[in-house]
């Protein structure tokens, strides 16, 4: 098969996959954007009516086959090997900024939550708004500036977990669990106040190093103990984000059809894609659930992270009254997965040992390589 034909088929596969995912582009939390007059609907009646409609069934089956065909076509054709290899290399160059990206993803929405007076999710407000504001703003700024990063992340996570049993609405912001865990593992990174302080404390010539009892006795030994576990950060991120996607897809769409249909009508989404409103709701729910399953499995992680990134973008720009700050955390964590890839314990990790990588294909198409170049070739995650 010629390179030109493979690339053409690759473009077709990408277009089909994009169209299949487009119906699921209503990824806002229904709780945040539902119209005030929306009425709940019977879940069983809604699903029975939808899944006995031939057009909806045919569309869903066609979308599923398109996704499966796109994945199979990618594995067989390996289109655009040089482009994919260059993209992965570019993402790898940002690994030293991963801590900074994670801190932004957690710190910015927490600051916004503090100013708005809610706890993690806009759906959770408590009778002591001053305390909520102090918590959100202080924790958010500590994370944003990277000061006492790990301690702050653990403290924020503890507050979330303690409040969760009495306020199950916090599950709408479940991404804080993997995000804060990843911050605790990775640390402040650079640029951060922690990095500056560590630099000063590590230099015996500075006056500060003589008065800081914490750095050498606590920080350095702790960093050494936790270092072997840093490679689990992408695993924690993709599994946690995957759970969040599945939860939102099922509970906010499939189990709340009345409110979801109200959102479709509110934004006149059937004028964007003229299909049955029920197909919008089911398509959105199943798309989010599929993305979640693939992230948990670590299958084509960067590819499905790009799909999620695109879905968030259409939500942020397409729904004018959606609380943007409520999505910053997911937006940032999905971006972090673009950098890290799947990590260990993933389908991607298994595939890279058995399927030719994009960089290997790119080198082969570029021409013969020396024996040294062949030996140095290292596979990378999808």
Automatic annotation (TrEMBL):
<dbReference type="InterPro" id="IPR051907">
    <property type="entry name" value="DoxX-like_oxidoreductase"/>
</dbReference>
<feature type="compositionally biased region" description="Basic and acidic residues">
    <location>
        <begin position="361"/>
        <end position="375"/>
    </location>
</feature>
<feature type="transmembrane region" description="Helical">
    <location>
        <begin position="232"/>
        <end position="250"/>
    </location>
</feature>
<feature type="transmembrane region" description="Helical">
    <location>
        <begin position="97"/>
        <end position="115"/>
    </location>
</feature>
<dbReference type="Pfam" id="PF07681">
    <property type="entry name" value="DoxX"/>
</dbReference>
<keyword id="KW-0472">Membrane</keyword>
<protein>
    <submittedName>
        <fullName>Uncharacterized membrane protein YphA, DoxX/SURF4 family</fullName>
    </submittedName>
</protein>
<feature type="transmembrane region" description="Helical">
    <location>
        <begin position="135"/>
        <end position="163"/>
    </location>
</feature>
<keyword id="KW-1133">Transmembrane helix</keyword>
<feature type="transmembrane region" description="Helical">
    <location>
        <begin position="52"/>
        <end position="77"/>
    </location>
</feature>
<keyword id="KW-0812">Transmembrane</keyword>
<feature type="transmembrane region" description="Helical">
    <location>
        <begin position="325"/>
        <end position="347"/>
    </location>
</feature>
<feature type="transmembrane region" description="Helical">
    <location>
        <begin position="278"/>
        <end position="296"/>
    </location>
</feature>
<dbReference type="GO" id="GO:0005886">
    <property type="term" value="C:plasma membrane"/>
</dbReference>
<dbReference type="InterPro" id="IPR032808">
    <property type="entry name" value="DoxX"/>
</dbReference>
<keyword id="KW-1003">Cell membrane</keyword>
<feature type="transmembrane region" description="Helical">
    <location>
        <begin position="303"/>
        <end position="319"/>
    </location>
</feature>
<feature type="region of interest" description="Disordered">
    <location>
        <begin position="361"/>
        <end position="382"/>
    </location>
</feature>
């Amino acid at each position: 098969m010629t390179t030109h034909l493979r690339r053409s088929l690759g473009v077709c596969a990408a277009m089909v996959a994009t169209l299949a995912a487009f119906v699921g582009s209503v990824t806002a939390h229904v709780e945040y954007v539902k119209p005030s007059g929306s009425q709940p609907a019977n879940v069983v009646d809604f699903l029975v009516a939808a899944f006995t409609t031939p057009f909806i069934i045919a569309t869903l089956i066609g979308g599923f086959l398109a996704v499966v065909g796109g994945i199979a076509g990618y594995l067989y054709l390996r289109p655009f090997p040089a482009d994919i290899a260059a993209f992965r290399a570019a993402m790898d160059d940002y690994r030293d900024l991963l801590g900074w990206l994670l801190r932004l993803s957690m710190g910015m929405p927490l600051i916004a939550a503090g100013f708005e007076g809610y706890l993690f999710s806009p759906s959770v407000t408590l009778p002591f708004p001053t305390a909520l504001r102090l918590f959100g703003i202080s924790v958010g700024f500590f994370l944003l500036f990277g000061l006492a990063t790990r301690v702050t992340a653990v403290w924020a996570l503890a507050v979330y977990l303690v409040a969760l049993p009495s306020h199950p609405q916090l599950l709408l912001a479940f991404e804080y669990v993997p995000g804060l865990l990843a911050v605790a593992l990775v640390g402040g990174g650079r640029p951060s106040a922690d990095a500056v302080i560590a630099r000063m404390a590590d230099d015996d010539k500075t006056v500060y190093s003589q008065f800081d009892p914490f750095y050498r006795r606590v920080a350095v030994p702790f960093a050494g103990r936790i270092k072997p576990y840093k490679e689990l950060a992408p695993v924690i991120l993709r599994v946690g984000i995957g759970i969040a996607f599945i939860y939102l897809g099922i509970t906010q769409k499939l189990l709340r059809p009345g409110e979801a249909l109200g959102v479709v009508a509110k934004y006149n989404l059937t004028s964007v894609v003229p299909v049955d409103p029920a197909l919008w709701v089911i398509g959105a729910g199943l798309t989010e659930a599929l993305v979640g399953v693939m992230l948990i499995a670590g299958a084509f992680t960067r590819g499905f992270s790009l799909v999620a990134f695109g879905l968030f973008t259409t939500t942020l720009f397409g729904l004018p009254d959606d609380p943007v700050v409520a999505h910053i955390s997911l937006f940032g964590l999905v971006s972090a997965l673009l950098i890290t890839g799947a990590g260990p314990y993933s389908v991607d990790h298994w595939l890279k040992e058995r399927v030719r990588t994009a960089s290997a294909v790119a080198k082969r198409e570029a021409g013969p390589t020396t024996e040294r170049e062949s030996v140095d070739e290292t596979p990378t995650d999808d």
